[in-house]
Amino acid sequence: MILAENIYALLDLTCLKDEVIPEDIEKLAVLAQEWQVAAVCVWPKHLAWLPKDLNIQKASVVNFPHGQQPLEVTLQEIKDILKDFPHTEIDYVFDYTSYLKGDTQKAIDDCAQIANFCHQHQAKLKVIVETGAFPDTQTIYQAAKSIIDTGADMLKTSTGKIAQGASLEAVEAFCQAIQSEQKHCGIKVSGGIRTMKQAKAYLELIHTYLPHLQEIRLGCSQLVNDL
Fold first, then answer.
1. DSSP designation for 87
2. Are 216 and 200 in contact (CB under 8 A)?
């Protein structure tokens, strides 16, 4: 049975609104500490707003939300984050636009360089695939396999910034890709998860395919209201 207290430990408690004030980050930190979530995920410029004594893992986003920055800009973003906040987890938006337009090698090569840079600096990399932009699950599956091969630590569904967020079909494609590649890679489900019922459905699906998968996260800012 999946209990609310078990879900707390999987949460990436997130605040990626367009307009954020210090009080938003303070509230996030209080909830994160109270519930002992997996991580707090905020814009890079807001990492400094988190309390210095917060003993919760930090995460931040790069190449966000459209995934179309030059590679050099994204690498510099990561470098700046890790210089000031070592071991921060990096949620990187895959260049899905180039990938879907047929420039698959460019998108994959960029992702591989990002993965290599993160690992050189002992930072976990979650790759945001933006599955809602993909035409079908087969395309998600193929992209996920290639992203796993770059060394990504986790596949993440969505930025939460386009209409279609996570879906069971997309997460199933992730699971199948991880099975196929037989490499260690986790899954982060994000984008539109608002209820305990939804969270349980995703967790049950993942456990059906990958019963021993340890790295599972739920990215949310709203699910907590239902726990």
1. T
2. no
Active-site residue 124, yes or no?
no
For residue 224, the tally of other CB atoms under 10 A from its CB is: 18
Domains in the chain (CATH in brackets) are 7-225 (3.20.20.70)
91 is catalytic: yes
> Which residue bears the tokens 């906040």?
85
Distance, in Å, from the CA atom of 25 to the CA atom of 48, rounded to the nearest integer, reads: 10
Per-residue model confidence as pLDDT tens for the chain (227 residues): 566 678 999 999 999 999 999 999 999 999 999 999 999 999 999 999 999 999 999 999 999 999 999 999 999 999 999 999 999 999 999 999 999 999 999 999 999 999 999 999 999 999 999 999 999 999 999 999 999 999 999 999 999 999 999 999 999 999 999 999 999 999 999 999 988 899 999 999 999 999 999 999 999 887 766 76
Tokens 């879907």, residue located: 100
Residue in the block written with tokens 């800009």: 73
Report the DSSP pairing between strands 154-156 and 57-62: unpaired
- Active-site pick, 58, 124, 126, 156: 156
Q: Which of 12, 91, 95, 153 is catalytic?
A: 91
Q: Are strands 11-15 and 216-220 parallel, antiparallel or unpaired?
A: parallel
Q: Which of 58, 124, 126, 188 is catalytic?
A: 188
SS3 63: coil
- Per-residue CA distances from 147 to 97, 116, 126, 177 (Å): 15, 12, 10, 10
